[in-house]
Amino acid sequence: MYDAVVVGGGIVGSSVAYHLARAGVDAVLVDREDEGRATDAGAGILSPATSSRTGSDPWFEFAVEAVGYYPDLVTALRDEQDGEVGYDRSGLLSVALGDEEVEAFDRAADRIEQRQRTLGEPDPDSYAEVTAAQARERFPALADVERAAYYDDAARVDGKLLTAALRRAGNHHGLEIRTADAEELLVKDGAIAGVRTDAGTVEAASAVVAGGAWSPAFGDQLGVEVPVEPQRGQIAHLDLAGGGANRTGADGSGSDTGDWPIVSPFRGHYLVPWPGGRVAAGATRETGSGFAPRTTADGVREVLDEALRVAPGLADAALDEVRVGLRPVSADRLPILGGVPGVDGAFVATGHGATGLQLGPYSGKLVAEMVRGREPETDVSEFGIERFE
Ligand SMILES: Cc1cc2nc3c(=O)[nH]c(=O)nc-3n(C[C@H](O)[C@H](O)[C@H](O)COP(=O)(O)OP(=O)(O)OC[C@H]3O[C@@H](n4cnc5c(N)ncnc54)[C@H](O)[C@@H]3O)c2cc1C
Fold first, then answer.
1. 313: domain CATH number?
2. Does some domain include residue 116?
3. What is the phi-psi region of residue 107: left when phi exceeds 0, alpha when psi lies from -120 to 50, beta otherwise?
4. pLDDT tens figures, 212-271
5. pLDDT at 243
6. CATH number, domain at 339?
7. Which H or E element spans position 287?
8. Measured in angstroms, how far is the CA atom of residue 10 from the centroid of ligand 1?
C-alpha cells in the first residue's frame, strides 16, 4: 500500500511525484506516455512579465511566484541527479512589425509599467526599449522591426529535460515509476483506495489526477466536472547549424543561438532559440482539435509564415521536426489545483493550458504539500475545482 499514486507524468505530475518523494512520501507515478503530451512539445518560455496573460491578476501573481521557484528547484535537481535539467536564463525581445503590432506593443509597455507600480514586478531596470539595429545585434535573423524592447529577466526550459530530471531525482528519493494506463480510480467508502491500471492494481491512500488534457476522464468517478479540453499546438524546430541565417551572428560576433534571446511579436507566435543552431518557431492554438496530436499542412504553414515574417534570416534553416502537443486548457484558463470535495485523498493538478511549463513545477510542489495534509505555502484556494460547481 502506497501513501500516494500520481496519475500522469508530464511536467505537472512529475513535479507532484518528485516533491512527494523528496518529502519522504511513499509514492508511485503512473504514466501512459501518450503521444501529444504537452510537456514534450512546449516552447519553454518563462516570462510572466511579458506574457500576453498579464491582464489576469490571479494568473500573473501565481506565475511570478512559480517562475521565482525555478532557480531553487534547478539547484536541488542538479544535486539530486546527474542529467541535464534544461533550464537557462535568457533575454526576451518584444518586437512590433506593423501598425497594429505597434499599438499592441504600446499597450504591453503600459501594462508592464502598471505592474511595476502596483506589484513591483518586473524590476524597472530589466525592461527597456531598444533600436531595431540593437535588436538585430541580439537576434541576427530578425526583420527590420519598427519597435523593440529587451527584457533581460526571462528564462527558457526544455520541458522534456526538466521532466526527466524530476523523475530521476524523484527516483533517487524512492519514487517508483510505472508505464501503464490508469483505467479507474478506486474509491471505497468515500475515500481513495488506489488505482486500477492495465498492469494491475496500485493500492494507495491518496491519488492525484495530473493527466493533462486527458484528466476529465476521471471526473465521473470523483463526482465532479473537470472542465479541461485539449488545445493542439504545432511548433516547428529549425536547425541553423548546417547553413541559413548565420548562427555566428550577422556582425561576426560568433554568438551561438544559445545566446540569442527569445523573440515575442504580437500575433501570439514566438521564436525560442536553443544552443547548437536550434530555433523553435511556435505555435498554433487549435481549439476543437480533439485528441489528434498530428501536424497539419495549414498548421505548419502558419508557424513557418509567422517565423519568416519576423525573422527572414531563418529562411534557409533546415526544418528539423514539427512537435505537436495538446495543451490542457481549463474553462477559465486557470489551473485546477487541490483536493476534490467528497472524496478523501483525491486531488487534481491540471488545466495549466498554455503556461504549464511556467506554472507546473510550482503547482506540483503545492499539491504535494496538500497531499501531505499541509497548508500550501501559497494560497491556491481560488484554483480549487469547486469553482466550477
Ligand atoms: C506547442 C506548445 C507550446 C507551449 N509553450 C509553452 C511555453 O512557452 N511556456 C509554458 O509555460 N507552457 C507552454 N506550453 C504549455 C505546457 O506545455 C503545458 O501546459 C504543460 O506541459 C502541461 O503539463 P501536464 O503535465 O499537465 O500535461 P502533459 O504534459 O500533457 O502530461 C499529461 C500526462 O498524463 C498522462 N496520462 C493521461 N491520462 C492518463 C491515464 N489515465 N493513465 C496514465 N497516464 C495518463 C499522459 O500520457 C501524459 O504523459 C506549451 C504547449 C504546447 C503544446
1. 3.30.9.10
2. yes
3. alpha
4. 999 999 999 999 999 999 999 999 999 998 654 544 544 444 458 999 999 998 888 999
5. 52
6. 3.50.50.60
7. strand 286-287
8. 5
Q: Which residue has the higher pLDDT, 204 or 108?
A: 204
Residue of minimum CA distance from atom 19 in ligand 1: 356
Atom 52 of ligand 1, nearest CA residue: 42
Looking at the domain assignment, is residue 65 inside a domain?
Answer: no
Asked if the structure places residue 311 within a domain, the reply is: yes
Other residues' Cβ atoms within 10 Å of the Cβ of residue 295: 17
| pLDDT tens-digit readout, 29-78 | 999 999 999 999 999 999 998 887 666 788 989 999 999 999 999 999 99
pTM: 0.96
| Contact residues of ligand 1, CB 6 A cut-off | 7-13, 30-34, 37-39, 41-45, 159, 181-182, 210-214, 233, 235, 282-283, 325, 327-328, 350, 352-358, 360
| Beta bridge partners of residue 348, listed in sequence order | 209, 338
Per residue in 2-15, pLDDT tens?
A: 999 999 999 999 99
Domain that residue 145 falls in: 89-152+230-327
- Ligand 1 atom with minimal separation from the 282 CA: 1
- Which residue matches cell numbers 514539427? 322
CA of 153 to the centre of ligand 1 (A): 25
Alpha-carbon gap, residue 192 to 268, rounded angstroms = 41
Do residues 378 and 62 touch, judged by C-beta distance below 8 A? yes
Residues 208, 238: one domain? no
Q: Which of 327, 342, 372 is the last residue of a domain?
A: 327
Counting from 1 in the atom list of ligand 1, the atom nearest the Cα of 8 is: 34
Nearest ligand 1 atom to the CA of 232 is 53
Q: Report how far residue 288's alpha carbon sits from residue 21's, in angstroms, rounded to the nearest whole number.
A: 37
Query: What pLDDT, on a 0 to 100 scale, did the predictor assign at position 81?
Result: 96
Question: What residue has cell string 524546430?
Answer: 237
Q: What is the average pLDDT score of the chain? A: 93
